[in-house]
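Q: How would the C-alpha cells look for this protein?
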Amino acid sequence: MPDERFRLRISLIGSDPEIWRTVDIDGDLRLDELHDVIQIAFGWRDSHLHEFGELDPYARGRDLPRIGRRSRRWMPAEELAEQADDPFPGAVEHALIDEQHARVASVFDSLDGPLYYWYDFGDSWHHTIELIERERADDPHATQPPWARRAELVRGERRGPLEDSGGVGGYLQLLDRLADPTSPEHADAAGWARWIAWPESDVDADEFDAAGVDLELALRFELGSDVSGLVVADEASVAPDAAIVGVLERLPEPLRRELRLRLRRTGALAPVAIEADAAGRMTRPYSWLLGRVGDGLTLTKAGWMPPAVVREGMVELGWADDWIGASNREDRTAPMLVLREQATRLGLVRVLKGRLVATAVGRRLRDDPVALWRHLASMLVTRPRHQGSRDAVLLLAIEIACGGHTESRGYDVAIAWGLDALGWSTGDGSILAPSDAHDLTWDARHVLDQLGVLRRKRRNDGRPTDEGRAFARAMLGVG
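A: Here is the predicted structure in C-alpha cell form.
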C-alpha cells in the first residue's frame, strides 16, 4: 500500500482547449513508471523518445548560462548511453540522470516548481506536471490507508492527440480539416486520421474515456494482468483461450490497450445471450438444409441436389422472389449452391456415396438452434487454415461487435489496418489493401449474410443488428 499520495495535474502545453489529466500516484513510483502513467493517461503509444526535466521548455532565457547547480534531466538508461557517446552542445550544463533511479517523492522534494515531460522530440509534445496535493497516510502501519492504488485517474478532459500529427499546432490544424467537409484536404486528413487512430473507428477530440483509462492504469499497476490484460466488467466472461485474447496478445501494448478501451466502451465484451427464437431465425437456412437432408439426400448423377429440393429451398427460405430464373438447378441457383458449400465447410453436411448426409455434428445440432448458432460462430473463426485469414475474420468480428460501419469499405479498411498492426503484409512487404481484406473475409461474409447479421439497405451496406453484434461477440469467444 502506498505510504504517500501525490495528486498531480498533467497538462499538454499549448493545447487549446486544454488537454489535461489529474492523477493520484504513489510517491514511491520511479520516473519511468510515471512515464507509463502519462502514456496511458494521454493515449500515447510509447513509440518515440522521452525525458523529464525541471526547466520550462518555453521559458525565456532557458538556454542562458545558469548560476548554481546544473539543471537536471531524467531519461531512460539507453538514452543516457547515447548522450555519453555523442553529447549534444551544452550537455555539460545539465545533470543527466537515469529515470529508473529517481522516485517521484524525491524529485518533488527538490523542485521549486513543476516537473516537465517531453515526448517525441520531433513533434515535441511538452507536458507540465504540477503537484496539487501531497498527503501521507495518517498511520504508516495501517493495513488500509485512505488510498490503496499506486496510480489512479481522478479526472481529465479531451482525448490525447494523434501520434505523429505534427505537435500541438499540427494536431489543431488536423482537427480543423476534419471539422470542415468542404476543405480540399478533408478527405486526406480523415483517411490519415482513421488509419493512425486504429483500432479506434473515428476521432472525437472532445471524447475521453476516463473509466477505461483508469482501468488500464489498474491493469498496469495493480492487477498484475497477463499479456492480454483483458479485464472487463464482472458480468462478462472471456476465457484465457478466447479468440479475442489471441488477437490482443499479438498487438503491441499501446494498440492492445486502445483495442481493450474500444471493446469495453462499445459493449463488444458484453455477455452473449441469444434467445432460441432469434437463433432459429438466424440459422434457418442451415437448419432447413439439415432437416431436408434428414437421413440422407440422393444427389443427381452430376452430384447436384434434386431440382425439386432446390426449388423447395428457394421458396421455403424466401429467396425465390428475388431470383431470376427457374431456381430449380443447384448449379444455376447461386443461393442454394452457396448454402450447401457453406454447410459443408462449416462441418454440417458432406457427400457420401452419392448422397448428401448430415455429419455427426450436423445431426446433433439440427434441432438445437442455439447450439447451431454458437457452432457457426466458432467455426467461422477456426475454419480458415491460414492464420492471416483467421485474423481477418476476427478483425471483421471486432468491427461488427463494436457497432460496425455504414458501408462495406469501412470494414475493409479497418481490417486492412488491423492486419498491418498484426504484422501481415503482401509478398513484397507492402501494406495489405482494403480489397485484400475483403477477399480474406469473403467466405465469412457469405455466412454472415445468410444469418442476417447486417441490416442490409442495399448490397454491401448496413450496420449490424443486435443479434448480429451478439453473434460477432460469440465469434470473439465472449461467454
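The chain has 19 helices and eleven strands.

The mean pLDDT is 90.

Upvote if useful.
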